[in-house]
Design a protein that fits this description.
Blueprint (H helix, E strand, L loop, with lengths): L8 H22 L6 H14 L3 E5 L2 H11 L7 E5 L8 H5 L3 E5 L10 H5 L5 E4 L11 H11 L4 E3 L7 E3 L5 E3 L6 E5 L13 E5 L2 H11 L3 E3 L2 E2 L10 H11 L2 H19 L21 E4 L3 H10 L29 H9 E4 L7 H16 L2
Parallel strand pairs: 2-3, 2-4, 5-8
Antiparallel strand pairs: 1-9, 6-7, 8-9, 10-11, 12-13
Helix pairs in contact: 1-8, 2-8, 3-7, 9-12
The structure holds pyridoxal-5'-phosphate.
GO biological process, one term: polysaccharide biosynthetic process
Keywords: Aminotransferase, Pyridoxal phosphate, Transferase
Pfam family, one: DegT_DnrJ_EryC1
Amino acid sequence: MSKIPLVDLKASYAKQKEAIDAAMQEVISNTRFINGQEIKDFDAAFAQFCRTKHSIGVGSGTAALHLSLAALGIGPGDEVAVPVHTFIATAEPVSWLGARPRFVDIDPETGNMDPAELKGLMEGVSAILPVHIHGRPVDMEAIAAIAADAGVPVIEDAAQAQGAEIVKTDGTVVRAGGYGIAGCFSFFPGKNLGAFGDAGGITTNDDEFAAKVKMLRDHGRTTKYEHTEIGYAHRLDTLQAAVLNVKLTVLEEGNLRRRELAADYSEKLRGVGDLRLPPATPGQVSVMHHYVVRTHHRDALLAFLKEQQIEAGIHYPIPLHLQPAYAFMGHKEGDFPVGEAYARECLSLPIYPELTDEQLERVAAAVRDFFEKQ
Ligand SMILES: *Cc1c(COP(=O)(O)O)cnc(C)c1O
């Protein structure tokens, strides 16, 4: 029985091997490793994909968050609202800048920052940083209204949400990264759009913000030898941009395939054991970065699947307020009960465009099998 991995980067590479190899070879031959044309091409193409005015390639998703917060002047004395259910990179750059995260509990269904919780925690908050977790859009309209009331900016952590769509009540559609002042994307290899190493991008519709981020990503440089501010070494690599240009051409169809697979999983797993399946969020278009089920038997199910050569994952087992790195903030178990329950119960099943119908059936059958034996 062959193993079904959680993410299959080899299958993804095989699909576009020739084009990717050629694009990389071109950079190696022309040796424009830094600030090459491929970066400008990728920035233009990714802005078009996200339907934003600008996209600025940077070194990683974490760098995208760091630069966006820095460009907004976040620093000591500031607090930034961050959901407890996310990867730690959402909060780290807040701390690097000398500011503090203000943790916010999540919606029990979607796993995203809960606007009702956020509302009660806005006192003293200088920016809001929601995450489109697992590729599912956050309730941006509710969060934007709270932000407008408080007069603070919204930065979207769209690391998992390339192509996700937010449908507003007036019917207009905004892609993830195009709603707040900034959208922060990660092109970590396992993301829906993945590079061959670390890479990221920032989308924005604001010319001034775009110019500031471009300056900050490259040592605060305004001309070759003039540095107007102390900036950062957060550039995107030309080689990574070359890979991303090729992979971007199949992102849309990959996202469609992910949604198809998710619908298939949900059909095959409905009513099985105590499983809670990803909720349908009418109108909102998720790009299904993770397919997350919830169960009180999570750890046993994870171990059972492993025995069947099926790799599942946990995104994420420890909410941010209980991470040792944030122990200094003095939070304790029970402070964010919805996020804590999610962390105990969530399990991610394999999902990626190259997953075959047969592989999905094998995963679904194994899950059903596990609950029959309970
Ligand atoms: C991947 C990820 C990041 C960090 O991106 P890197 O490219 O790994 O730095 C930030 N936030 C979330 C939600 C992520 O999933």
